[in-house]
Amino acid sequence: MSPNSDKTILLDTQETLSYNALFNEMYAGLCLFAERFLLVSADGEDLVQEVFVKLWDKFEDFDALNAIKAYLYQSTRNACLNQIRHEKVKRKYEAEQVRQLESESFFLQQVVEEEGQRLIAQSISELPPQCRKILELSMHGLKNSEIADDLGISVNSVKTQKAIAYKTLRIKLQNVFDIVMLISGL
Amino acid sequence: MEEIKKHIILAELLAKEVADKLSDDEKEELNLFLSDESLTQVIASARKSIIDQARLNRYKDFDVEAARQKIEWKIKFRKKNRKIRLMNFIRYAAVISLPIALASWLIYTTVFVNAPQIAQAPIEIKPGGSKAMLYLSDGRSVDLERKNESQIKEADGSLILKDSTGLNYTIQAAEIVEEKIQENVVVTPAGGEYQLTLSDGTKVWMNALSEIRYPVKFTGDTRQVAIKGEVLFDVAKNKEKPFYVNVGDVEIKVLGTQFNVMAYPDEENIETTLVEGSVRLMGKNLDGNRTQVDLKPGHKADFNRMSKSVEVNTVDTDIYTAWKDGKFVFESDNLEGIMRKMERWYNVKVFFENQEMKNHRFSARLSRYGNIEDILYKMEQTTHVKFIIKDDYVIVRRR
User: Residues near A125 by Cβ (< 8 Å), separated by ≥ 6?
Assistant: First the structure.
């Protein structure tokens, strides 16, 4: 509960990086990355934890953040493929599925998508608390009036905070519903 | 690896593009990527998927802190596991080549009897006791754990008495020249507690992992001290010189009284419990405006570090001050909070294997000078919890 063991390295950018800080930044993203490969996403967390355990011993060998990230994505993918190949024997994955999941191009595509999304999620998490809460509720599909009720503030406050959030992030978030509407030609 | 790093850089550019935060150099970089035909499909697909709200909502699903504790635990214990597995393998391999009678005996002893642990010097978990470090104004430090009576001389000539109950600043040599204010600091470690009497007669009890800064002698119109951790005060009455306690975000003005301040950095609230007299809490709320709350005896004020709001309740103050008399008093406290107290007093690290155990509640009144095993055992009796002690780690799981 009180973090005691940690390691810190000096990066080529002259910044320091601690193992725990790296873990906090990358853990969720890597679990979601593993989910892109595994059918049963519950295994993803254990798998990613093992990847980090292995990283502990090698941590001081690194001196660049992107190199560590590349190592983490690669190791997670390898661990997923090991599991998939094992599961294939139990007939849980089709041969064609496995081939697709094993492909280099699929891997690199997932890296871009996951890392990109992770960075955006991180910007959202860095918003001031109430601003972030409002943005998250809005992303869950709540209307301004519903958010105002939920938080006990005025609709105007909600609109103001939303404007601040969008101004800080300038993110145009894609609503799943928008896509559906587009496809069905409505 | 180079190909992967290239895609990581591309991802960062695309995320910045969405937020409209690309520098001119980065715009150039992104254009280079865009001109690479092999990446056209990748970029088009990623631009759509990285702003997908449903997926962005998923990042909050993970209890990152719980996972971090788990890997800290895995890193610490994985080497031992490897040794045990190897020994088992050797045992089983030996069984195969032996005649049946001997083999069955060996199977019995390995499979049905617990494998002997690899002998190591066990780390004993001891309860806390009187331990602290004193830092004098010239930087000298004195270890206060040693029980001998002695006198410590400060730079300005004033004397500090140390006896078996703690430090005493009320004895002053007559010929002190008051120049610069001499500041002393007392710090308690995990498993430490200490008592002192300040120069005005104010009594101070310090819990584990705490700190108090104070002047050797109170001069001027006010008496000011600063604390961290958990400290109980019995402030000597002096209407002419109000007593102020600084706890980071909160300042407490004291008007001759007995009160407890709990301000550990890993707790959500700064809690001030008033036993006798009156105190005024002063702080700033989120808008930067000054706020203050006056407490009456029996009141406990919780200042939330995040929201900077204060909530006052009437409580049985004994629950919050019993530590100074060597007791743990839990009144429907949740296990998470109780285990944090165990960590500070017994100097152990606690891991929750099952997160939902954090919310189990317990009530108990126990001596804190007893063994941790006794306390944990009592808790195991009342609910579905199991504690496993390994060296100075305590693992909490559901039974």
Answer: A132, B59
Q: Tell me, what DSSP letter sits at residue B108?
A: I
Q: Which two tokens stand for residue B116?
A: 């002997």
Q: What is the pLDDT of residue A49?
A: 95
d(CA B32, CA B24): 13
Question: Hey, how many other C-beta atoms are within 10 angstroms of the C-beta on A134?
Answer: 26
Q: Which residue of A has its CA nearest to B358?
A: A1
Q: What is the pLDDT of residue B256?
A: 67
A110 vs B11: CA distance, rounded Å? 10
Distance (Å, whole) CA B89 – CA B86:
5
The helix/strand/coil state of A86 is helix
- DSSP class per residue in B37-81: GGGHHHHHHHHHHTTBHHHHGGGGG--HHHHHHHHHHHHHHHHHH
Task: Report long-range pairs for A35-43 (Cβ below 8 Å, ≥24 apart).
Answer: A36/A110, A36/A113, A36/A114, A37/A77, A37/A80, A37/A81, A37/A84, A37/A101, A37/A110, A38/A80, A38/A83, A38/A84, A39/A87, A39/A92, A39/A93, A43/A83
pTM over the 0.90 mark? no
Asked if B307 and B314 count as a contact pair (C-beta separation under 8 A), the reply is no
Any bridge partners for residue B283, and if so which?
A: B291
Q: What is the mean pLDDT of residues A155-179?
A: 69
Q: State the CB neighbour count (10 A cutoff) for residue B34.
A: 13
Q: Is B356 helix (H, G, I), strand (E, B) or coil?
A: helix
Residues B190, B265: Cα–Cα separation, whole Å? 14
B78 contact residues in A (CB cutoff 8 A): 53
Predicted complex ipTM: 0.84
CB environment B97-110: b (16+ within 10 A), e (fewer):
eeeeeeeeebeeeb
CATH class of B220-322: mainly beta
Interhelix angle A65-89/A95-102, rounded to 10 degrees, is 170
Does residue B287 have a pLDDT over 80? Answer: no
DSSP letter for B98, please: S
Structure tokens given for B312: 């006052």
Residues of B in contact with A5 (CB under 8 A): 72, 75-76
Asked if A172 and B18 come within 8 Å (Cβ–Cβ), the reply is yes
Q: What are phi and psi of B82, to 5 degrees?
A: -60, -40
Query: Count of CB contacts below 8 A, A vs B?
Result: 156
- B83 min Cα distance to partner chain A (Å): 18
Which residue in this structure is represented by tokens 């504790």?
Answer: B69
For B110-128, give the DSSP string.
Answer: IIISPPPPPP-PPPPP---
Question: Which class is domain B326-398?
Answer: alpha beta
**What pLDDT score does B341 carry?**
94
